[in-house]
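Researcher: Sequence recovery benchmark, item below. Answer with residues only.
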């Protein structure tokens, strides 16, 4: 890419956000839909399903906000995969508990 092309790259923002089964989804302006487990952030991990569903978009789609939880997460951070906590699902499935 040339320097001029780099300057015109526009970072996608969220058009909408919603929650299904403790997974938070965002639809981006570039057409992608990204989902991540609420458990990747400590405050969201402790939240009830009702509290999670109260997600709103802020800063023209650059952030998700949970007013009742006083939690904000940036869309660029989600897109880049910058989560606060590790994904526990894979660790649990890769290390089955032996019963004997």
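Model:
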């Amino acid at each position: 890419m040339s320097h001029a092309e780099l300057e015109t790259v526009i970072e996608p923002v969220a058009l909408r956000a919603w929650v299904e089964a403790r997974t938070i989804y965002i639809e981006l302006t570039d057409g992608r839909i990204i989902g991540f487990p609420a458990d990747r952030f400590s405050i969201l991990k402790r939240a009830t399903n009702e509290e999670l569903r109260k997600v709103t978009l802020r800063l023209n789609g650059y952030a998700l906000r949970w007013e009742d939880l006083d939690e904000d997460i940036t869309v660029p951070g989600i897109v880049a995969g910058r989560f606060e906590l590790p994904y526990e699902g894979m660790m649990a499935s890769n290390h089955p508990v032996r019963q004997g």
